[in-house]
Specification:
The protein is of the alpha+beta class. The chain contains 5 helices and 7 strands. Strand 6 and strand 7 form a beta hairpin. Helix 1 packs antiparallel against helix 2. It is flat.
Length: about 150
């Protein structure tokens, strides 16, 4: 029987406006952050974690829910398509062509979130390389105008 993966979702309604304002201010204005428990044990928060928490708090303070999905979780094709910003039908086509690995649970396809992330990274690399080639071609043809302001 399929069991839904453990996904943590933080919704803005879980916090008061005052809590969000205090947390957002604390995490966004601090390069070094420490937490302490009720017994006074203090621990430094690594900067990368503090930045991630600040980003999460910023999104929640904008009224957006935030979902944490472990990379190894299996997700539905609809969830994966939503993440990548495409239709489910297009995503299923990618899966069926073998561009993204999948497995089936009954008749339903599931994909590892890490495979969706790998596909996204691959697409970004291809896009970046194509833009670099176009930029190089424009520059080589002498059509690059560094003084152009767009007006």
């Amino acid at each position: 029987m399929y069991q839904a993966p453990h996904i943590d979702r933080l919704h803005p309604a879980l916090f008061s406006n005052e809590e969000l304002a205090n947390l957002t201010t604390t995490f966004s204005n601090t390069k070094r952050l420490a937490l302490s428990n009720t017994r006074g044990k203090r621990v430094e928060v690594p900067e990368t974690l503090a930045r991630l928490i600040a980003k999460i708090l910023h999104l929640i303070s904008e009224g957006k829910a935030v979902t944490l999905i472990p990379d190894d979780n299996a997700i539905t094709t609809q969830t994966a398509a939503n993440y990548l910003g495409m239709s489910r039908q297009h995503f299923v086509g990618l899966v069926e062509r073998g561009e993204i690995p999948h497995h089936k649970v009954g008749t339903h396809r599931r994909v590892a979130f890490s495979d969706v992330l790998a596909y996204e990274k691959k697409c970004n690399r291809i896009r970046r390389n194509a833009l670099n080639r176009i930029s190089d071609a424009v520059d080589a043809a002498g059509h690059y105008n560094a003084d152009y302001t767009g007006t």
